[in-house]
């Protein structure tokens, strides 16, 4: 008898930025959205410039969801982040 199990994979969110005020703002927005909406996600802060360059991002902050660049060079709204995670 086959079981139809649906696995919802945890999202991997990376915030690329060297620690500038905008990077900190983006981190706060993402953390708030994930906690307020009980989203299953791992949030990684990437501050190493060599790691950031691997994504070919020239303007920070950048939001990477499951290795896809979603936003770069600006701080998104909570609604925008929620839409990207759903």
UniProtKB/TrEMBL annotation:
Gene3D superfamilies: Glutaredoxin (3.40.30.10). It comes from Pricia antarctica. It comes from the Bacteria. This is Small redox-active disulfide protein 2. The keyword Disulfide bond applies. Disulfide bonds join 20-23. SUPFAM superfamilies: Thioredoxin-like. The keyword Disulfide bond applies. Residues 13-85 form the Thioredoxin-like fold domain. InterPro entries: Thioredoxin-like_fold, Thioredoxin-like_sf, THIRX-like_proc. The active site is at residues 20, 23. Keywords: Disulfide bond, Redox-active center. NCBIfam families: redox_disulf_2 (TIGR00412).
């Amino acid at each position: 008898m086959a079981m139809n199990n649906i696995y919802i994979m945890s999202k991997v969110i990376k915030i690329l930025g060297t620690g500038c005020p905008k990077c900190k703002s983006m981190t706060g927005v993402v953390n708030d959205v994930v906690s307020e909406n009980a989203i299953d996600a791992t949030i990684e802060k990437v501050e190493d410039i060599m790691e950031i360059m691997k994504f070919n991002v020239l303007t920070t902050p950048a939001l990477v969801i499951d290795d896809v660049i979603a936003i770069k060079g600006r701080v998104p709204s909570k609604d925008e982040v929620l839409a990207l995670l759903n």
